[in-house]
Protein 1
Amino acid sequence: MKVKKQLFWFTTLIIFLGLVSLFAVSVYFNHANNHSIARNNVIETTRIVANLYNEDSDIDLLALSANSTRITIIAADGRVLAETSQLDYGTGANHLTRPEIMTAAAGVSEVHLRFSDSLRTNFIYYALRVDTSDGYIFVRTAIPVANVNAYLMQSLPLFLGIILVVALLCFVVNRTLINRITCPFDSIINENRINAKRREEFFANASHELKTPLTAIKGFTELTAINNKDENIRKYINSITRETERMMSLIGDMLALSELESTPKINPAKISLAAVVGEVRDTVSTGISEKNIAFSTTGDGVIMAEQGHIYELVKNLIENAVRYNVDGGKILVSIKSERKFIHLSVADTGIGIPAEEQERIFERFYRVEKSRSQQSGGTGLGLAIVKHICALYGWKLRVESKVGDGTEVTVEMGL
Ligand code: ADP
């Protein structure tokens, strides 16, 4: 819906801008073209009048031969001898200082554009020096030319009319076209939405169907182990229990990943990171005491996020810090709250990750040491889940590790 609106306004804006530019360009070229025609006309007319002129010429007859163009005959001393429009004649002003007369006097006649105060319009002037029996005179002609503003004002009503018609057409055609173009996408989006529902339902059902028999197997094997004194059989049963647990975590991780990849639900709530760390610490307490690990937490920060996502993220990082730690090792979880970010880092003093493997550990099922990871209950999906959660919230993920020294994974959470 939002995309449709954007598309509608975008195309309408483009059409509007196109029309305005077309209008501006056409006004400019029309104006430039008319000026060029006027320049040629004024030169041509002045030449004809200059050729026809002699001392006995009737100025009105000359004007007729020059298509009623404004003609002025100026004496060598600058006096106006005759003038068709009576404008300059009436003023009695000396014309020797007029640019077109100055250039004509110098023998290099040029076209000049000037605004006429009396006629309130621009005129193009051109003058030629004509030799007579007792000296010389100047023949000057002038043609009125409209300025750009006049062109603009002339064409504006027509332009506004066109804009109105185009706007109406845009509204009707654009809407119909956009609806037609986006129709297939709408059905794809709807289909995807329905599929994502169905998908969630399938995974919820599959999770239930798979977990129920596995829970039963686990329960029965534990019961058999308790009631069986045979050491060998107890060993086999323990292996079955371990593998069943592994299978259950694998199903859990696969479901978590699949949910993150489809349309994860986010119901943001205020979450204290230190509280989540404490919760996770309790669930991994067996591993911590088995390896004699010193576990500590510093700082706290409150983040708005989906509770389940934060729990999954912290759980996977702390589980790894325990799983790949050494006996008597340390784990430090630090939470630093800044103005715009919260830095959550989980540091261990475990086996570390070789530099060349550090890029790949976020891939699904990628393990540095497959057998070690499997033995300690790893599914190979933990960090892939962490990466997906970070991507979902736009958080940055960083790993620093040195083989034999330990690993520190940091998540930069934007607030
Ligand atoms: P797994 O379930 O196998 O631990 P993960 O996706 O969580 O899978 O991690 C991928 C691999 O990255 C692990 O198999 C392990 O080799 C390596 N790894 C992850 N965290 C650590 C860590 N803290 N110390 C050393 N190696 C680690």
Protein 2
Amino acid sequence: MKLFLATRNAGKVREMKAVLDGAGLAEEVEVVSALDYPHVTEPEETGSTFAENAHLKATYYARATGLPALADDSGLVVDALDGRPGVLSSRYGRDDTERIERLLSELAGVEEDARRSAHFACAMALADPDGHIVAESEGRLDGVIAREPRGNHGFGYDPIFHVPELDCRLAEALPEVKNRLSHRGRALQAILPELKRYILIARETQP
Ligand code: IMP
């Protein structure tokens, strides 16, 4: 049986596979992603919340592939910017460097750490092959936007996201450390029991 990860973001695929492997799911299912299905076009992310976009992606990819699909919608929510970039996080610039530069320039006049607070948010949804949502979850990681990038791990805004409980940037944390406490790691842990139950039932009822 295959489980489809509803994303083309290689960073997300890497992190989600690592958590699913750690939970013993690699023996139960073959984990594939939109990177393995280049002919399937991406849906337009028209939702105004992370949960809406996660639903939309899970439903779309499940129907397009005929596989159960696990979708993540995530982003960075900066308090001093009224929640921007939020659901537009992946569209805040042409690449990670440009997105980070834009965010830092928008926060240029914001001096104290307390006013540079932010969090990563993640919503997850699991759809069956008919596109019905069978489980959903959320996760969050609080931090502070640093003044310059640092670190080589992770992806996206990780180099400018300072995590107080680690006292380092998210891009300086080892992958297994990030997966344990990140918004995505927490959302995945929260959906795991229902994902395992779904896989068990699907396997028992498969012809
Ligand atoms: P999505 O594909 O619409 O969910 O966009 C998610 C975007 O949010 C990514 O392209 C990144 O810019 C940002 N993002 C989400 N999760 C992370 C993370 O764990 N680290 C850094 N940036 C992230």
